[in-house]
Design a protein that fits this description.
Low-confidence stretches: 5-11, 290-298, 306-312
Keywords: Glycosyltransferase, Transferase
Organism: Miscanthus lutarioriparius
CATH architecture of the largest domain: 3-Layer(aba) Sandwich
Domain Glycosyltransferase N-terminal: 18-140
CATH superfamily of the largest domain: Glycogen Phosphorylase B
Pfam families: Glyco_transf_N (PF26168), UDPGT (PF00201)
Largest sheet: 7 strands, parallel
Number of helices: 17
Family: Belongs to the UDP-glycosyltransferase family.
Length: 451
């Protein structure tokens, strides 16, 4: 199961070497790194490619040896095409997307050439295959042009993919871009029902689509970026996705039909890594830089990895003194925490989240129901599915009020809906634990990466 050939020595004299290319944001780097650890454990040599901005940021955060990797696991960096910057903050997303889409193909091919030259000089295996983020499709094109096997990792949700895939159809039908900015607030997003998508709910509203449909500009970078990148996914021989069959069976069937490619579920990746990468593996400690420094705990809020305020002041100074006084002794404010570990603590009763996919899976793995306050991208779609399709979340409306949030939290903690959400998320947790095996990773290796 995914083990490397031993009887066919002529076929593989050295370990296979995979170049892994995540989109340069934490929500994408994290699952790609987790998949890299699984492939490493099964005998692959890994080259993990960060953009230069994140490469330098990582070294500043963790020191000059932070990216030394491990024997057979090395880090490389690629120029993303943006002007150099030493700012310790998330890069501008539209600018980064446009730049990677339009400038990175020749840089990627040059990186592979340099990697192979170094490998030959040092007696290491040359590159045999590529696993690229589904919104870094230049790497899939590059792999094809170089004659390398390739797969793509869709790091977001299956329901998010369905939303992005049908962006093109929304444009063709004249639904998007919006006629004017008034459509953002006049109820249009709620009243437009998209009932013609196979595998999706028949009452799916425009507001449930990933947020980049909320534009009046036909040349909007993010709208057109996702139309371009989703189409480019077909350059891969297979699609890998961080979910499990019991959660997303209907959507996965739809994905496979739309892309005409096999779909390999390898999630939830945090559990799959925990269950299958030995604790003493040299890659166990490799990670992403952080800013760390009974229902006794009712709610754990998280703003996600891209949300930010305009202030660099400590978190406590951004909150009303009355709030700090009222919660003294029963709250903790932190710029970072080990979220997955917190969500697995028996004292956590509900998770207030923007509904990013990694956070959603971590909450499912912890058996914690969610109160959802989506921010951007496919968080709106994730929120919709958690609320109406999976029954494990509640949604905070756009017009956020203290009283509304209190009602939702109390219902999630103490009410009948909360008990039902807890029952359902516990069932999904059990399915997630059962799914966290290497079987599909092994199939990916045998049927795609070594085929």
């Amino acid at each position: 199961m995914g083990s490397l050939p031993t009887a066919e020595g002529e076929r593989r004299q050295q370990p296979p070497h995979v170049v892994m290319v995540p989109y340069p944001a934490q929500g994408h780097v994290t699952p790609m790194l987790q998949l890299a650890k699984l492939l490493y454990t099964l005998g692959f040599h890994i080259t993990f490619v960060n953009n230069e901005f994140n490469h330098r940021r990582h070294l500043r955060a963790r020191g000059p040896g932070a990216l030394d990797g491990a024997p057979g696991f090395r880090f490389a960096a690629i120029n993303d095409g943006l002007p150099p910057s030493e700012v310790d903050a998330t890069q501008d997303v539209p600018a980064l997307c446009y730049s990677t889409m339009t400038t990175c193909l020749p840089r990627f091919k040059d990186l592979v050439a340099r990697t192979n030259a170094e490998a030959e000089a040092q007696g290491r295996p040359t590159v045999t295959c590529v696993v690229a983020d589904s919104i870094m499709t230049f790497a899939l094109r590059g792999a094809r042009e170089l004659g390398l096997r390739c797969a793509t990792l869709w790091t977001a949700s299956a329901c998010g993919f369905i939303g992005y895939y049908y962006y093109r159809h929304l444009v063709e039908r004249g639904i998007v871009p919006l006629e004017n900015e008034a459509r953002l607030t006049d109820g249009y997003l709620d009243t437009v029902v998209v009932d013609w998508i196979p595998g999706a709910p028949k009452d799916l509203r425009l507001r449930d689509f990933p947020s980049f449909v909320r534009t009046t500009d036909p040349d909007d970078i993010m709208l057109n970026f996702f139309i371009h990148e989703v189409a480019g996914m077909s350059q891969a021989s297979a699609v890998v996705i961080n979910t499990f069959d019991e959660l997303d069976a209907t959507l996965l069937h739809a994905m496979a039909k739309l892309l005409s490619r096999p779909i390999y579920t390898v999630g939830p990746l945090p559990l799959t890594v925990r269950n299958n990468v030995p604790a003493d593996s040299p890659v166990t400690a490799i990670g992403w830089p952080s800013s760390r420094g009974g229902w006794s705990t009712p709610a754990t809020p998280s703003c996600g990895t891209c949300a930010r305020t305009s202030s660099r002041a400590p978190a406590a100074t951004l909150l009303a003194p009355e709030f700090l006084a009222a919660t003294e002794g029963r709250s903790m404010l932190s710029t970072w925490c080990p979220q997955a570990a917190v969500l697995e603590h028996e004292g956590v009763g509900v998770f207030l989240t923007h509904s990013g996919w990694n956070s959603t899976l971590e909450s499912i793995c912890g058996g914690v129901p969610m109160v959802c306050w989506p921010f951007f991208a496919e968080q709106q779609t994730n929120c919709r599915y958690k609320h109406t399709e999976w029954g494990i979340g509640m949604e905070i409306g756009n017009d956020v009020r203290r009283g509304e949030v209190e009602v939702l939290i109390r219902e999630a903690m103490e009410g009948e809906k909360g008990r039902e959400m807890r029952r359902r998320v516990t069932e999904l947790k059990e399915s997630a634990v059962a799914a966290a095996r290497l079987r599909n990773v092994g199939r990916l290796i045998d049927e795609v990466l070594l085929a």
